[in-house]
From TrEMBL:
Functional description taken from the UniProt entry: Acyltransferase required for the direct transfer of medium- to long-chain fatty acyl moieties from a carrier protein (MbtL) on to the epsilon-amino group of lysine residue in the mycobactin core.
Pfam families named among the record's database cross-references: Acetyltransf_8 (PF13523)
PROSITE patterns membership: GNAT
Keywords, ordered alphabetically: Antibiotic resistance
InterPro entries membership: Acyl_CoA_acyltransferase, Acyltransferase_MbtK/IucB-like, GNAT_dom
Source organism of the structure: Streptomyces prasinosporus
Identification of the protein by name: Lysine N-acyltransferase MbtK
Length: 180
């Protein structure tokens, strides 16, 4: 059981949150986010585009009320993975980014991905979470595996070679039970 503390999420406000997100997505640890050269205005535009999209949503994750992570939820039938795999009913795509810090807390990122998965599976319609991280992002592959994701295959997206992976509600619960 995590002793990290409570997490909450709120919808991202592209205008108000752009400066904060800009610091996060341009940080060297966020290289796989592929926004290293983005300006604050670029970040605001990208998240305004997501906010306006019917099938893609962004949220700011809070830890003890303070911004701590970014979470994106998308419908893979319409965003990110169109034509790259055959979506099943109840599939939900996910991205997450933990805020950079000078004082890392052991287990924090694992607690964040667990909170993200809990948030996604809180919707009874979600049957399986889909991710497509860069094949070179070994740290996130290990985190994904720790919460129950099973890699299926590598795929070519326009911006990267990705590892398509899935986690059912049952796989997530089993992984949580194994780590409790």
């Amino acid at each position: 059981m995590s002793t990290i503390g409570p997490f909450t999420v709120r919808p991202l406000d592209p205008e108000k949150d752009a400066e904060l997100l800009h610091r996060w997505v341009t940080h060297p640890k966020a290289a796989f986010w592929m926004m290293q050269d983005a300006t604050p205005r670029d970040v605001e535009r990208e998240y305004a585009r997501i906010a306006a999209h019917e099938h893609h949503h962004a949220y700011l994750g809070l830890h003890d009320g303070e911004p701590a992570f970014l979470m994106e939820k998308y419908d893979p039938r319409y965003v990110e993975l169109v034509g790259l795999y055959e979506p099943l009913p109840g599939d939900v795509g996910m991205h997450f980014l933990v805020a950079p810090t000078d004082r890392p807390v052991h287990g924090f990122t694992r607690a964040v991905i667990t909170a993200v998965m809990e948030e996604l599976f809180a919707d009874p319609a979600t049957r399986r979470v889909v991710v497509e991280p860069d094949v070179g992002n070994k740290a996130v592959h290990a985190l994904n595996e720790a919460v129950g994701f099973v890699p299926e295959r590598e795929i070519d997206k326009p911006e990267k070679r990705a590892l398509l992976s899935f986690c059912t509600r049952e796989q997530f619960e089993a992984a949580r039970g194994a780590s409790a």
